[in-house]
Amino acid sequence: MQLPKAGTIEIAPSILSADFARLADEIAEVESAGVNMVHLDVMDGHFVPNITIGPPVIAKLRKCSKLVFDSHLMISEPDKYAEHFVEAGANHITFHIEAADDPVKLIEKLHKLGVTAGICLNPETPVEAIETIAPLCDMVLVMTVRPGFGAQQFMPEAAKKIAKIREILGPEIRIEVDGGIDPQTTPIVVSYGADTLVAGNAIFAKSDRIAAINAIRAACPVG
Ligand code: DX5
Ligand code: ZN
Q: Does the C-beta of 78 come closer than 6 Å to ligand 1?
């Protein structure tokens, strides 16, 4: 289970809008739609004003799914906690530039632990904050809502940073986008250079999740 190499568009359903009492079934349903990864939103009530799941839940989910676990750590002190998520079975760990003490050291540590690493920037954080660190990552995550909740409105100004980051990174490093992604916003972010699309509400709020995933796929510009 590895982050797919750049060159494909991947949809990463975010469990934040799923039924937390039936997480394993919810993940199995999106797996049957042919996605390769699932986006696990980890919130600590400190870095963001909401609390979700931690390593014990991820460890149990690991036994139920072969999908790439794309873990988005919206937590303070990621340097201290990241390895617990690796032990639990996360395959890709994204932490926030705003929260990390030593981002370079943390990326190196994640690579040594055998997982891929990602850095994330909030809508207000300028590209300059990750310019030197981003090329060390396997994927850069651009927030197009303020982190903490699902079903918020897409922020078009924040999405524009994707184009700038793509220019810096070239084609080999994935750019993931998170917040308000649906069939309307998908063509915008893909045209800026995003190749990994997180979608929570646009998938899990729909009764037919497979149709919802296919609608996002169909909205991707061709070529
Ligand atoms: C928000 C989370 C997102 C969230 C996106 O803080 O990081 O992953 O689930 O939800 P939607 O797709 O509903 O905007
Ligand atoms: Zn997320």
A: no
